[in-house]
Amino acid sequence: MKIVLAMLLSLVFVVTSFTFENVSSVDAVESEQDFYRSFWVHAFEPGLKTEDEIDQLIMDVKDANMNSIIAQVSRRHDAYYHSDVLPFTEDTAVPEGFDSLGYLIDKAEEHGIEVHAWINVGTMWQGEAPENPEHIYNKYGPDAPDDETWVTKGYEDDVDAAQPYLDLGHPEARDHVVDIVRDVVKNYDVDGVHLDYIRYPENPEGEPIGWNGYNPTSLERFQEETGRTDRPHPEDEEWLDWKVEQTDSLVKRVYTEMMDENPEVDLSTAVVSWGLDDPRETDWWDLDPVQRVHQNWKEWVQEGYLDYVYVMNYDEDADPERADRYDAWIEWQKDLDRNRGMVIGPGLYLNTVADGISQINRAMKPSPSENIAEGVSPYVYNDWSNDDVSQEDLIRSLSQPTEYNEEEAPFSEPVDTPTAEWKDNGKGHVLGQLLVDGEIQVNQDITLKKGRDEPAEVEVSTDANGYFAVTDLKPGNYFIEINGKDADENVQVTPNEVSRIDMGEEPEVEPPESAADIEAVVEGLAEDGAFADDETHRALTVHLTAVHHYENQGSEEQAVQHMEGFEDLLDHQQEEALITEEAYDILSLQVEELLDIRA
Q1: Measuring CA to CA, which residue among 40, 68, 57, 14 is closest to residue 270?
Q2: Residue 512 vs residues 124, 581, 593: alpha-carbon distances, Å
Q3: Contact 440, 253 (CB under 8 A)
Q4: Cis omega before residue 73 (within 30°)?
Q5: Could you count the other beta carbons within 10 Å of the beta carbon of residue 348?
Q6: How far is it, in rounded angstroms, from Cα 482 to Cα 376?
Q7: Backbone CA torsion sign across 141, 146, 152, 158
Q8: Which of 13, 226, 259, 399 is deepest in the core (most CB within 10 A)?
Q9: DSSP letters for 478-531
Q10: Counting beta carbons within 10 angstroms of the beta carbon of residue 230, is it exposed (0 to 12), middle (13 to 18) or buried (19 or more)?
Q11: DSSP character for 423?
């Protein structure tokens, strides 16, 4: 069979080996360094639903000396904005057609406050079915046939009827998540996209961990990819590994797809820190994030799958065991060797205002090893404590000395948000899709090499949709192998560019009538980053200029000779990996067609 490799390259600068070098120090904290001070603001309570609520939110964030808002604009696959993918929310508290996200962005920009669009991924719906027939709950929810539903199921085919979850192993559900993110980034000037519930649901009480994930399509995929025919037990290790990979690969794909749309927007996720095991003394794989919900977020910040993780450090100080758990986790988070950002998220709603502010202060202080995180994000603006202290008192206590902060406000002076330095350190991303005879190919091994005989730079596998994503590559040409065999393809990773390249498919280009037509194609390919450098581009242009000169003079023989020389030049550039395979195929076809005309 002919192998078709449809490559989508998102080439954006990010760092490959940068770490924060444990950037924390007492001096850094005392100097009020750049730091995320974010408020999560959910859409289940007032805060984002009207102009007046948003005006008050902006005023409160400003008064608290905070600098960013994580605004929930999609609760259960509905939109508090104008979306081409999701139906508009049926929340009756929202004025008809009111664009909460758009209004928030405009108001926040006036005060230098960042806005990150918070999107719930896993939770499909809650309560009675939505009225809109186009909502995914109505089309692909629990009542859909097995071959159409996107709902995850339990080991015994059970579904959480109160709040069904999207199954992250279903190919169409994964595409849907990507479409949501690209839609927001394309149409709104957001500073970031924040994904929540980017995980599997936890096991029902009394059932083994790993209980969920048995969507019929996903289970069939697992069996096909592993060669198994059984229904794996929830605690089966191979089943666990497979589900973890579904989450990992989806985050990587969303990240590269989003930066293809706009490389300046940050991707962050809300991640769990569950369980009473001390992360400083326990192997990561054995902790609850991996075991219970298959969210391998430690790898995300170490391998560069996204920009920031916001860890949901939800513990109540009134319980000494939980207070100790909070301190153990945030110490581990500060000390974690990583090349992406870490934001600590205290759970205000579980604490008194005084205890919540104490947790914020502890989040900001250096660890015993003098390391810090890159931010703190209290949860949540519109459910701020478990005592009777007013929200106004909380806001004031964040920036001014009060009885609730022991006269030491955590945010005494304004600071800027941190700069994601990995975005402009000369590295790039690759996102590709593998097809065979037009069919997507899953679980295929992809190897990228700097040279055909060089050791592998990276080895990955295609996901449920035939995609593979690689982050933080050095610029240059990479040869591709599929399942250990040379695919006769190479990928040009070019600094400061985002390129889309469909490789291996028969190019659709108008046949040329003259060398000038081919020169126009060369210019278009150059804009798409098809050439290794300016010299490669210039050499092709010089040859075509000569051909065009002889065409104008009516010297057919000379024109053909120079066109044949152009063909030889193309072969040389292809052999030296100075030109992408797609560009080579397109230009070779153009030359053949023009020579046929001259014959």
Answers
A1: 40
A2: 51, 20, 7
A3: no
A4: no
A5: 25
A6: 43
A7: positive
A8: 259
A9: EEEEETTEEEEEEEEE-TT--EE---SS----PPPSSHHHHHHHHHHHHHTT-B
A10: exposed
A11: G
Q: Provide the 10 A C-beta neighbour count for residue 576.
A: 11
CA-atom Rg of the chain in angstroms: 27
d(CA 236, CA 223): 13
pTM of the prediction?
0.82
Report d(CA 149, CA 146) in Å as an integer.
6
Q: DSSP letter for 151, please.
A: B
With a CB cutoff of 8 Å and minimum separation 6, the contacts of 490 are: 477, 478, 479, 480, 577, 580, 581
Residue with tokens 């600098």: 67
Q: What is the pLDDT along the chain (599 residues), one digit of tens a residue?
A: 334 444 444 433 333 333 333 433 333 334 458 999 999 999 999 999 999 999 999 999 999 999 999 999 999 999 999 999 999 999 999 999 999 999 999 999 999 999 999 999 999 999 999 999 999 999 999 999 999 999 999 999 999 989 999 999 999 999 999 999 999 999 999 999 999 999 999 999 999 999 999 999 999 999 999 999 999 999 999 999 999 999 999 999 999 999 999 999 999 999 999 999 999 999 999 999 999 999 999 999 999 999 999 999 999 999 999 999 999 999 999 999 999 999 999 999 999 999 999 999 999 999 999 999 999 999 999 999 999 999 999 999 999 999 999 999 999 999 999 999 999 888 888 998 888 877 888 999 999 998 888 899 999 999 999 999 999 988 888 889 899 888 877 888 876 554 344 434 444 567 888 888 899 889 888 887 888 889 999 999 988 888 888 888 888 888 888 888 899 999 999 888 899 877 888 898 888 888 887 66
- The full 3-state SS of 41-107, as one line of letters, equals ECCCCCCCCCHHHHHHHHHHHHHCCCCEEEEEEECCCCECCCCCCCCECCCCCCCCCCCHHHHHHHH
Residues 11, 453: Cα–Cα separation, whole Å? 24
